Amino acid sequence: xxxxxxxxxxxxxxxxxxxxxxxxxxxxxxxxxxxxxxxxxxxxxxxxxxxxxxxxxxxxxxxxxxxxxxxxxxxxxxxxxxxxxxxxxxxxxxxxxxxxxxxxxxxxxxxxxxxxxxxxxxxxxxxxxxxxxxxxxxxxxxxxxxxxxxxxxxxxxxxxxxxxxxxxxxxxxxxxxxxxxxxxxxxxxxxxxxxxxxxxxxxxxxxxxxxxxxxxxxxxxxxxxxxxxxxxxxxxxxxxxxxxxxxxxxxxxxxxxxxxxxxxxxxxxxxxxxxxxxxxxxxxxxxxxxxxxxxxxxxxxxxxxxxxxxxxxxxxxxxxxxxxxxxxxxxxxxxxxxxxxxxxxxxxxxxxxxxxxxxxxxxxxxxxxxxxxxxxxxxxxxxxxxxxxxxxxxxxxxxxxxxxxxxxxxxxxxxxxxxxx
Length: 421
Description:
The chain has helices spanning 17-35, 66-77, 103-110, 113-117, 152-169, 215-235, 260-263, 272-275, 296-313, 348-358, 363-370, 375-378, 384-387, 408-420, and strands spanning 5-12, 40-48, 51-59, 93-99, 136-143, 176-189, 192-205, 242-250, 266-267, 319-326, 335-339. It is an alpha+beta fold.
């Protein structure tokens, strides 16, 4: 990437139709794992005007009232008829089409290729017992642009979207509806954040505000409130703030009354860049929501973030991206790659070797490291649903195990020993 450039990232509120679907899929996952931590879940959701459809594959020893989970999730987001902009948790149709996990897939996951290849050795490590739930490539990233070691554009975009939702829920204004988006453009100089170039806020709203129906007047009210109640409070916690040249684009379409599932169909897994690094790092293409931890699309990506964050926290690089590849039914990763974008204190090849020696990236090892199957039960039945909005990485509003940096000191010591040798 060139030294001087503009970079933009976006986020969306929990009322965005795609995020409604992500939350429904993860709420279903939470329910199944809370009752049966060994559940195999792969649920997809789509929503549109007056309807929510849940489909996929689930194998479990428990029963979950899926329509009730769907309706409660939609209700908690804020779609309750007129106040929610036309979509209503009480009256929308809820359709389900659920099958069991494929026996072929289950066979590869339940007993990994390594275990199936040699049945004579009874002392094998139990972390070989399950194979990856699919083939694919997973990426994790960290950089020293923010305290949470995330790229600045997506960090601010998430906080703006979350603040927009909080303003609505706290009724600081009386006209906001659940759907909304944020977007932040940061100017970089010498590859470091320098200033805020553009801020975009698009928020769904009532057709009238305090009896005012004139659209130009409504636009001015919304613009003033969004700057004072959403944007400025977020930047109180940042050294880089909007300046006199920063451009504000508030509801640039001019009107945003029809939104949510009534305005646009939603689908699980369609905001994977919002879920991760805002486009600043690569993405393997696999979505997270609705998938149990045996799916490495989810667990492998979390582990990659953990590794990258610990490398940056250890001071071994200013930026770090990890790629891990898996084959379905195989426990050991196919490949592990470290890229520090020429910011590493030791070579990427040496870092890759240290990572392979330090981190166990087999699926069952990752599940155990983060206790992924038990997190919903340990968090009152809701964990993955909370991740489904405002990012699966870089969060500081509740405890997330892959955001911990307990391995940083170990990495620093191994790198120091390597250099000394």
